[in-house]
Amino acid sequence: MYKVTIIAGARPNFMKIAPIIHAIQTTQETIDYRLVHTGQHYDKNMSGSFFEQLEIPEPHVNLECSGGSQAEQTANIMVAFEKELLANPADLVLVVGDVTSTMACALVAQKLHTKVAHVEGGIRSDDWSMPEEINRLVTDSITNYFFTTSETANSNLRKSGVADDQIFFVGNTMIDTLLKQRPNFKQPAVWSELDLKAKNYIVMTLHRPANVDEESQLKAMIDEIIAHSENLPLVFPVHPRTAKILEKLHVNHPRLHMIEPLSYLEFNYLVEKAKAVITDSGGITEEASVLRVPCLTLRDNTERPETITLGTNELVGTKPEQLKPYLDRLFNNEWKEGQDIPLWDGQTSKRIIENLKAHVIK
């Protein structure tokens, strides 16, 4: 029996690992997995019903390493995961995405002579001010097997000296979950409370420090969105770090509806039916592109260029004055349609397990 320890540190990680676990469960006992939740992000929406709704197994263990600075959290995760891996040895540690847990657990695994596989290896923003970019670079520098989402990621890895036989272009596991759960999207209470109509409102999410930590910048951006969004309702599930800043700014407008964070199924219900999404989240750009919803990304760079070249995403930038031309295009019905992105087809996790069995498990 080949033993794989799977790491998740934040809610999006669980969306990425859920289909991998489902694929493992169909391998007829070739692979035995252990799911480790580092507890990096506390999320009150991650209750038992979260795991039940998305058909995600409960973690075997929660290391409860939330809080602290970047350095403290990295250290806490490494100490806790070292004990976990020594107590429960594995043949392979599988990490996903680019959170602190991804990097910390990869380091621990290699120091304990355990091979590492990175799902979403090779993606790059080339912006070293983002903690996630440092996590990607460090993780990929010590990874043995890379499961990639795009040819761009493959090229990034080859440029850094990774051999072709370590790279497996499989697609995007986040999209596996999206397509599987699409029939289960759930209307949130805010739909009827605000009397929302399909394609007649905009969904907003903002959480990156570049957009929310500078108070005048955040207020100017929201003012610009309000000014150029016609008369559409703006539905804004507010990230906790953003909520604290907005409270101080006294931001309010009759069309701006700041609500509590939603569950995965409720949030994607809103996204699927929206006129557009305005966001600074990389994961949401992927989901919006597959759902064919126009997406305006308030960032100066992206690690997911395929959402722009093939998807419905456009990189607006972080200056408020850059937003108007994009909203004008949206309301003039001049937004691009989007195309299928290669291998973002709901079968990625199946390909991961097939490649594990064919090329990794000895």
In short, what is this structure?
The protein is α/β, with parallel strands linked by helices. It folds into two domains: 2-172 and 344-360, Glycogen Phosphorylase B (Rossmann fold); 184-331, Rossmann fold (3-Layer(aba) Sandwich).
How would you portray this structure in words?
This protein is α/β, with parallel strands linked by helices. The protein folds into two domains: 188 residues, 3-Layer(aba) Sandwich (Rossmann fold); 148 residues, Rossmann fold (3-Layer(aba) Sandwich). It has 16 helices and 13 strands. The strands form two sheets. The chain has a seven-stranded parallel beta sheet with strand order 3-2-1-4-5-6-7, sandwiched between helices. It has a six-stranded parallel beta sheet with strand order 10-9-8-11-12-13. Helix 6 links the parallel strand 6 and strand 7. The model has no long low-confidence stretch (mean pLDDT 94).
